[in-house]
Amino acid sequence: MPEAIDLLVLNAHLFSMRGEGVGYIANGALAVRDTRIVDIGLSRDLESRYQAAQVLNADQCAVLPGLIDAHMHSRYALLRGVAQDVGHWMQGALTPFSQHLDPQASHAGTRLNILEALLAGTTTIGDFLEPYPGWAECFLEAGIRARLTPTINALPQTGMAGWEIGALYPLSEDAGKARLDHALAFCDQCQNAGEGRITTMLGPQAADMLTRELLVQTAREAAERQLMLHMHVAQGDREIEQMMKRHGQRTPAYLDSLGLLNEQLLAVHLTEADAHETRLIASRGASMVVCSGSIGIIDGIVPPALAFRDAGGRVALGSDQAAGNNCNNIFNEMKLTALFNKIHYRNPEAMPAWEVLRMATIEGARAIGLGDQIGSLETGKQADFILVDLNCANLSPVIEEPIRNIVPNLVYAASGHEVHTVVVAGKILVSDHQPLDLPVRSIRAQAQQQAERIAAAVIRDPAHRQLRLMNAMATECL
Length: 478
Prior knowledge:
Elements: E1 3-15, E2 24-33, E3 36-42, H1 43-49, E4 50-57, E5 61-65, E6 67-72, H2 89-98, H3 103-119, E7 122-129, H4 135-142, E8 145-152, H5 173-190, E9 198-200, E10 203-204, H6 212-225, E11 229-233, H7 237-247, H8 251-257, E12 265-269, H9 275-283, E13 287-290, H10 292-299, H11 305-310, E14 315-317, H12 330-345, H13 353-359, H14 362-367, E15 385-389, H15 406-412, E16 419-424, E17 427-431, E18 434-435, H16 440-460, H17 468-476
Parallel strand pairs: 1-4, 1-5, 6-7, 7-8, 8-9, 8-10, 11-12, 12-13, 13-14
Antiparallel strand pairs: 1-2, 2-3, 5-15, 15-16, 16-17, 17-18
Helix pairs in contact: 3-4, 3-16, 12-13, 13-15
């Protein structure tokens, strides 16, 4: 008698990510009951073993674990394209806009970003924001999985707009303590919400933006709650300059002196980390998030993800933010990470396609502390997976022998629009390229309305006259 299940996926080019490679199964199948995978194998075996309430025919589709975007600032989807092609990106391009993002605008940006990411196959988002009312609810509404990280810094409420570039940041212990309290309250309230889909980390924004005491206290609070620290580390020459002025140490050495380089740390960017610092961070057990598109555009730098992996470290992919990166799409990050490293090291064998696919799935899951739950298609794990249509012109033809071309084409040719179906915790969220539960038109209309309101506020603000991109456009006729 066949066993009753909720969902059966058949006839797939299935990439389980089990083992050390991509775990390919030709004509593969996946059985799901409730939120979890109960079996994986050949279609002929599972079809005879189970009676499913719903069957997905994945013929001519690749079935993959859902993609993981380990580091995103979702609300900045509202500011897509306002801050790139300039130096001093944060102070001279982003902050004049971001300081006007109130909760209403942030809500619109987050919902737009979730929609964008979901349609491109992202099933888990590591969002990094100062909490605002309704933040977690955006992810609950969408049905997506999230590692929400409330940001903590000790900067004055006014932010960085108008500050002299290179001047030492003023830090406020009271402001920092208030943000820590707010972050702790958010984590205590939202941890394991949505039947466990929503989990949290604590987010000291960067070592240069907190006092020593506040950073140590944040780490202590995280350890007591068994939360990871999600933190920008050595993210640019701006940070290193601040650290040297204030502490006389570069960021990695400073964090190491505080005992914060450990498995609790998810270190984002490492843009300015040298070879020794990269090996040090990896050897201490910390994980890294590489945001190739964002750092390429903002800094013109290839972060040391390859060196970090070579040192034994775990590396995840992140899209960062749409204000400088212009998209939140892990297919984009896979391609750029592979290409940038090949170019940087003048080595076509660096970062092969199968390795960056693992960084977008199982290695990303391990880096964010969820490797036992997601990232690979295995019995007992959460049923988070996507179907990618291999009939799309840019993914055709499919060749299986003597060389299987599916993974290279997914990394180098796909753009995300080929994602046909998205499943999170056993529930179909996207079918035939269309979200089933999200009000797409309303989300887009709300984002447009809020973006226009924020742009009008920026125009009224005298700080906008210093916008570096606006000045560049005036002189270069862009």
